[in-house]
């Protein structure tokens, strides 16, 4: 029983590792918007599986649902950051990216509060609590089709300059956005001369070693600072 509890908790992280590992390939091939839509479908399926696990008397459904939630979360973290940043005007890009962390923290807080026994953590309502992760995915899958694809993706990966201009006008309104398009073209030219590193190559690269040390130390200390207990 202890092993099953441990597996139920940790399998989310295993799924997250797999999801984040495949995010770069999927975004380049299919685009941020399509990946986000498919990712929301995955989360809704995972929420449904966990929500019906009690009625089906199957703890295996919880394991499967948690794993699928992990894959979805692993995909969502880089996807959401990239999409939110790329569809935002330059002056609001930093603010848009910072909201991601704020909403993740808010979501964790709401989840922990909802999980109290006085609310949805009771013996009769916990399947509803586990299925509640599908609600944000449902909201996004309804609203996201009204948003355009990321302008940098359209221009840099698809070479669709007209589509890029149309997406920019839809997002930022009418006006002269040639400076923003020129910036994307400069970034595309820079990327042609830049080698994309794998994870192992990044760890072996001397030029990025100190940045990597800083990220690992910061991430580790956040986990050790007692934030979960708080």
From TrEMBL:
Subcellular location: Membrane
Main location per the UniProt record: membrane
GO cellular component labels: plasma membrane
GO biological process, one term: D-glucose import
Transmembrane segments: 6-26, 38-56
InterPro entries in the cross-refs: GLUT, MFS_dom, MFS_sugar_transport-like, MFS_trans_sf, Sugar_transporter_CS
Keywords of this entry: Membrane, Transmembrane, Transmembrane helix
Pfam families tied to this protein: Sugar_tr (PF00083)
Membrane topology reported for the UniProt record: Multi-pass membrane protein
GO MF, one annotated term: D-glucose transmembrane transporter activity
UniProt KW Iron-sulfur keyword: no
Residue ranges of domain Major facilitator superfamily (MFS) profile in the record: 1-230
PANTHER family: MAJOR FACILITATOR SUPERFAMILY (MFS) PROFILE DOMAIN-CONTAINING PROTEIN, SOLUTE CARRIER FAMILY 2
Protein name: GTR5 protein
Organism of this sequence: Eubucco bourcierii
Encoding gene per record: Slc2a5_0
């Amino acid at each position: 029983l202890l092993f099953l509890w441990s597996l139920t908790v940790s399998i989310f992280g295993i799924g997250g590792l797999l999801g984040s590992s495949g995010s770069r390939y999927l975004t380049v091939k299919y685009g941020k918007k399509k990946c986000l839509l498919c990712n929301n479908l995955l989360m809704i399926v995972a929420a449904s599986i966990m929500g019906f696990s009690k009625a089906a008397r199957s703890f295996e459904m919880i394991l499967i649902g948690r794993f699928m939630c992990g894959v979805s979360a692993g995909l969502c973290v880089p996807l959401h950051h990239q999409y939110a940043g790329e569809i935002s005007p330059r002056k609001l890009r930093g603010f848009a990216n910072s909201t991601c962390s704020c909403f993740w923290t808010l979501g964790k807080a709401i989840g922990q509060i909802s999980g109290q026994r006085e609310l949805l953590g009771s013996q009769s309502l916990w399947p509803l609590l586990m299925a509640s992760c599908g609600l944000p995915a449902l909201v996004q899958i309804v609203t996201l089709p009204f948003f355009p694809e990321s302008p940098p993706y359209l221009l840099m990966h698809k070479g669709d300059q007209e589509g890029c201009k149309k997406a920019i006008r839809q997002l930022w309104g009418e006006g002269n956005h040639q400076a923003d398009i020129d910036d994307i073209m400069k970034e595309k030219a820079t990327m042609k001369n830049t080698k994309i590193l794998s994870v192992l190559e990044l760890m072996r690269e001397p030029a990025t070693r100190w940045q990597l040390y800083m990220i690992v130390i910061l991430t580790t200390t956040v986990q050790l600072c007692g934030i979960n207990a708080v």
